């Protein structure tokens, strides 16, 4: 190798974060890797509408059971997870959030967890700012349901509103459930302590934005292009939003599936559901419909960015993640 080529190679190596002394071993200098970098959104062009998918971070259930599949044996659970190349005892959840831009509206579907439960979540705000979107420019926030990982981000740790100019929209049924004197958890498998904590957190946030809340009936179309649909079970008024433009659409199925395992095993059940058995029925209905209609889905918690289809093989459904080769944008 002549001197010029040697210098060139050393330059390339250093730009790839390789130290020349380790060339040949391809050891990465981890101190130079910006692994705390903010996460850029994925821009999706859907007909004449653009929507952006943001990450609010990630959640981990260190013990998969009994929160997921409480009545399934450990052996069966681990075999089911292994078949899908998932970890056996841990359930990881992404927190994927959709932002829609259309004419004079900038609409968020949910607001993420906020910083109330640690630093692994609540990244939406900084990711929005990083992408050049001022939180004050958000005009509307559609609340899919009242769980902390969907509404916590409305309020900051100092109790101020993160989106001061936004109007909020929630299904009347969902609002009435959380704001009733004693929300009915008689069909859930949550402990009394868990119920108390979740009700108090949600009531607190909904009270803070009460004057800015508009209630809709599931089945209504919002802003002329977002179809609402009830997906009862996870909560009584959990709402699915289907966004359509130029005969193309994507269905935001929120928390019907928390993990690909629940796509494959919909009847194993999730204790996070307010109505455990109804959650299973809705999961199965959505699987059947989405498979039959080849619907493009977007999910709050399936692996980033949460876009995919439902497939079926040997009577078992599976999550088929949307394939794209342009890391920053997708043309549907
Ligand atoms: Zn959720």
Automatic annotation (TrEMBL):
Q: Does the keyword Ribosomal protein apply?
A: no
To which protein family does this belong?
Answer: Belongs to the metallo-beta-lactamase superfamily.
Q: Which residues form the Metallo-beta-lactamase domain?
A: 94-301
Q: Which SMART domains match?
A: Lactamase_B
Name of the protein in question: MBL fold metallo-hydrolase
Q: Which UniProt keywords apply?
A: Hydrolase, Metal-binding, Signal, Zinc
Quote the InterPro entries the UniProt record gives: MBL_superfamily_lactonases (IPR051013), Metallo-B-lactamas (IPR001279), RibonucZ/Hydroxyglut_hydro (IPR036866)
Signal sequence, renumbered to the chain: 1-24
